[in-house]
Design brief:
With 593 residues, the protein is α/β, with parallel strands linked by helices. 33% of the residues lie in helices and 19% in strands. The chain is built from 19 helices and 19 strands. The strands form four sheets. Strands 16-15-14-17-18-19 form a six-stranded mixed beta sheet, with helices on both faces. A five-stranded mixed beta sheet has the order 1-6-5-7-13. Strands 8, 9, 10, 11 and 12 form a five-stranded mixed beta sheet that branches. The longest helix is centred in the middle third of the chain and has 14 residues.
C-alpha cells in the first residue's frame, strides 16, 4: 500500500498549505485478512448491550489475489485490535467535506481491519486526478471525477458504489435573498441569472471547474435553465464573467465569502450549507436549488492504481460504509442516502434556510463530454482579452433617446459601455479610442487610453479606473461626422501590430451612423484591405454594435464577416450591456456563430 507522511492536525475545515489534511484513524475501518485465497474483512464494533463482552466481529469475504499486502494474518478467527498489523495501512483519500464524518464514524465505532489502521486523508479530488496525492482507495465528491482521472492516466475502479448523496445548491446571503425577491425573480438558477438586468444583480461565484465538481454542476445547471431562451448566451456569459476571480474550491471557504461579498451566490453541497449554518448561526446561508437540470454529488468509493488488493479493499470499505450505523452517521451529518432520501438533519432544517427535504435531483449524471464542455465553456469565456474599444462621438450621438427622460445616445452608450467593459478582469488589456471626422490633421480617431492592463498601474490606481474615467469624459462633437472606414482599418492594424497569441485580440466598435467622411477610403477598398491583411494565425475580429435608425448595418455586417466578427443592432443603447455579454459568449462558436 502507499506510504504516507505522518498525519497532520485537523479540524472540520482546516487544511495544510498543500490543502490536504491527514486524519489518522488509529481505530481501524475495515479488516482484510488473506488466507487460502480469501480476503477476510473483519469489522469490529463494541456490544451495545454488554460492553464487558469484548469486541464483536462481522466477517465479509471476497476473492483475494496472490501476494496481497495484507497476507500473513489468520483468517480462521477475528483479529483483535492489538494484533500485529500484517501489512501497511490502507490509505483512503476522502473529499474534505466528507472526511470528518467518516473519521468520527470510524473512531466512534472502533472499526478495525485485521488490526491494520486505515488512514483517512482529506484530499481535494483534483489532487488525485493530477497525481499530486496518492491513495489506495478514493472517495471523491462526484463520479464525474472518474473519467477525468482515467484520462489523466490514473487507474480507478472498476466499481464505484455511492455511499451518500448531496444536491448542489446555490448558497445565498440574506441580502442576496432579498435582492432576488425585490427583483421578482424565480427562486431557481434562471431567476438568479435574470437579476443581471436589474440595478442590484446577484453575481454567480464559480470556482475553477477543473478543481470543483460543484462548479461543473452549477455551469451545467445554468445551461439547462436557459436552454432555448433567446438570451441564453448573455445569461451564461454573465454567470461566468461576473464571478469573482480565484475563488476557493472548499465549500466552507466559499460560504465564508458570503460574509464579505453578500451579493454573490456560490455553488456548494446541501450538506455543506447545513454544516455552515450549524457552525455559524449569526451568518447563515440560504439554499437556492437550481431547478430542472440540477445535479447531486454521489460520493463513490473506488480503488486507485489497479492493485487487486486495493480493489478488494475498496469493495469491502464500501460495504462497511453502507451498513446501518454508517448510514445513520451520514444522514445525521446532513448527507442524503444514495437514493436521495433525506435524514433527520435535513428534515429538521427550518424553512428559512431554504432546505427542501422533498427536493430530488432528476437529471441523469453528466456525461464525460458534458463535463468537458462545461469546463471548456468557462475557460474560453474567461480567456484573457486584448481589446481596443472604439466609440463614436459624432454629432448624431447627441440625439435624445425616447423614454429616457432626456438622455442622449452618447450618455447611454457611455453607461452601457462602462457596464460591459466592467465584465473584464484585471488581467485584461483594453484601450479606448474616440472617433468622428478630422480629430487631428491626419486622423479621424484619437487615442484616449492605449491598450494596457486593467490592473494596478503602479501609481496608486488601476487601468480599470483610468478606463472608466476616460469613458465618462467622452463628449459628442455637435458638427462631427462619422469617419468609419478609416477608423476601422487603423484599429485592426493597431491591434494586430501588438498581437498576443495567449489572448483574444478584438476590436469593439460602437456607432450610430454611417461613414460620411468624403476623404476616406471606399467600402470596397476597406474590405479588400481587410481581406488581404487578415491572418488566420492572428485573427482580429471586429465586433460592431450599431444603435439608432441611421446606422449602416449592412456595411458593419460586411466588416464583421471580413474579420470573423459579429454585428449587433440595438435601437436602444440601454441594451448594449446584453450585447457585450453575447459578444463575449460568441468566443465559443466564432467564427461560425
Amino acid at each position: 500500500m502507499t506510504d504516507q507522511s505522518p498525519p497532520a492536525a485537523h479540524g472540520r475545515h482546516r487544511r495544510s498549505p498543500a490543502r490536504r489534511r491527514t486524519l489518522t484513524v488509529v481505530a481501524v475501518v475495515v479488516a482484510l485478512v488473506a488466507a487460502a485465497g480469501v480476503i477476510t474483512w473483519l469489522v469490529r464494533s463494541r456490544s451495545s448491550t454488554d460492553p464487558a463482552a469484548g469486541p464483536a466481529a462481522v466477517t465479509v469475504t471476497a476473492a483475494s489475489p496472490t501476494g496481497s499486502p495484507f497476507d500473513g494474518a489468520a483468517a480462521s478467527a477475528p483479529v483483535s485490535a492489538g494484533a500485529r498489523c500484517p501489512g501497511e495501512p490502507l490509505t483512503v483519500a476522502v473529499t474534505p467535506d466528507l472526511a470528518p464524518t467518516l473519521t468520527a464514524f470510524a473512531e466512534r465505532q472502533d472499526l478495525t481491519v485485521a488490526g491494520c489502521p486505515v488512514r483517512i486523508d482529506a484530499v481535494d479530488p483534483a489532487q488525485v486526478v493530477d497525481g499530486s496525492a496518492t491513495a489506495d482507495v478514493w472517495i471523491p465528491d462526484s463520479s464525474s471525477w472518474l473519467p477525468r482521472a482515467t484520462a489523466a492516466g490514473r487507474t480507478v475502479g472498476p466499481d464505484a458504489p455511492s455511499i451518500a448523496t448531496s444536491p448542489v445548491v446555490f448558497a445565498l446571503s440574506g441580502q442576496a435573498q432579498q435582492q432576488l425577491a425585490a427583483a421578482g425573480a424565480s427562486t431557481d438558477v434562471a431567476g438568479l441569472l435574470a437579476t443581471r438586468k436589474t440595478a442590484a444583480p446577484i453575481r454567480v461565484g464559480l470556482p475553477d471547474p477543473q478543481r470543483s465538481a460543484a462548479a461543473v454542476a452549477a455551469t451545467l445547471s445554468a445551461r439547462a435553465a436557459v436552454s432555448g431562451a433567446t438570451d441564453a448566451r448573455p445569461a451564461l456569459t454573465w454567470a461566468v464573467r461576473s464571478s469573482p476571480a480565484d475563488l476557493p474550491v472548499d465549500d466552507a471557504q466559499l460560504l465564508a465569502r458570503l460574509t464579505s461579498d453578500p451579493g454573490t451566490a456560490v455553488p456548494v453541497t446541501e450538506q455543506s450549507l447545513l454544516a455552515w449554518d450549524q457552525d455559524h448561526p449569526d451568518s447563515p446561508a440560504r439554499a437556492l436549488y437550481p431547478g430542472p437540470g440540477g445535479f447531486a454529488m454521489d460520493f463513490p468509493v473506488v480503488a486507485v492504481g489497479g492493485d487487486p488488493a486495493a480493489t478488494a479493499a475498496a469493495r469491502e470499505l464500501a460495504t462497511a460504509l453502507t451498513t446501518e450505523p454508517a448510514r445513520t452517521a451520514l444522514l445525521a451529518a446532513g448527507f442524503r442516502a444514495p437514493d436521495q432520501t433525506p435524514g433527520p438533519a435535513i428534515s429538521a432544517a427550518g424553512a428559512a434556510s431554504g432546505i427542501d427535504p422533498a427536493y430530488r435531483e432528476t437529471s441523469d449524471p453528466p456525461t464525460p463530454q458534458a463535463v468537458d464542455d462545461a469546463i471548456r465553456s468557462v475557460q474560453v469565456t474567461n480567456e484573457g482579452t486584448r481589446m481596443l474599444a472604439v466609440m463614436d462621438i459624432s454629432g448624431s450621438m447627441l440625439a435624445q433617446v425616447p423614454g429616457t427622460n432626456g438622455a442622449d445616445r452618447i450618455d447611454l452608450a457611455k453607461d452601457a459601455a462602462a457596464r460591459g467593459l466592467g465584465l473584464y478582469r484585471a488581467d485584461s488589456d483594453i484601450g479606448l479610442w474616440e472617433f468622428s471626422t478630422r480629430l487631428s490633421p491626419t486622423s479621424d480617431h484619437r487615442e484616449l487610453i492605449p491598450i494596457s492592463s486593467l490592473g494596478p498601474d503602479g501609481q496608486g490606481s488601476t487601468g480599470a479606473a483610468r478606463l472608466a474615467a476616460a469613458l465618462n469624459g467622452l463628449q459628442a462633437i455637435p458638427d462631427g461626422g462619422t469617419g468609419l472606414y478609416d477608423t476601422v482599418l487603423d484599429a485592426t492594424r493597431t491591434v494586430r501590430a501588438g498581437y498576443d497569441p495567449d489572448r483574444v485580440n478584438v476590436v469593439l466598435l460602437l456607432t450610430d451612423g454611417m461613414n460620411d467622411d468624403v476623404n476616406s477610403i471606399t467600402m470596397d477598398q476597406l474590405l479588400s484591405t481587410l481581406a488581404a491583411e487578415q491572418d488566420p494565425a492572428r485573427p482580429v475580429p471586429v465586433i460592431s454594435i450599431a444603435f439608432g435608425p441611421d446606422s449602416d448595418v449592412a456595411a458593419l455586417q460586411q466588416i464583421s464577416r471580413a474579420t470573423g466578427g459579429a454585428t449587433y443592432l440595438s435601437q436602444d443603447p440601454r441594451q448594449i450591456g446584453e450585447i457585450f455579454l453575447d459578444a463575449v459568449g460568441q468566443r465559443l462558436c466564432r467564427p461560425s456563430c
